[in-house]
Write a structure and sequence with these properties.
mainly alpha
């Protein structure tokens, strides 16, 4: 059913919390979520998610991106 005239669509937070990064696709998803969080106002939960994503991405990079 189409929205009623004059109604404002509600933006729902439909992302899946990332808890593991195993593939390049997982890494891209994490990076996109990281950017999304950086561009918005943050709740305490968002800040915790940012810290988790940073740790997960660094771990993936150390294991898969060469260098030291």
């Amino acid at each position: 059913m189409p929205p009623a005239t004059g109604s404002v669509p509600i933006k729902m937070n439909m992302h899946k919390r990332i808890t593991e990064i195993e593939t390049e696709d997982d890494y891209r998803d994490a990076l996109n979520r990281f950017i999304e969080l950086c561009e918005s106002q943050k709740t305490d939960e968002d800040l915790q998610e940012l810290l988790l994503l940073t740790d997960l991405m660094e771990k993936y990079e150390r294991a898969n991106c060469g260098g030291s």
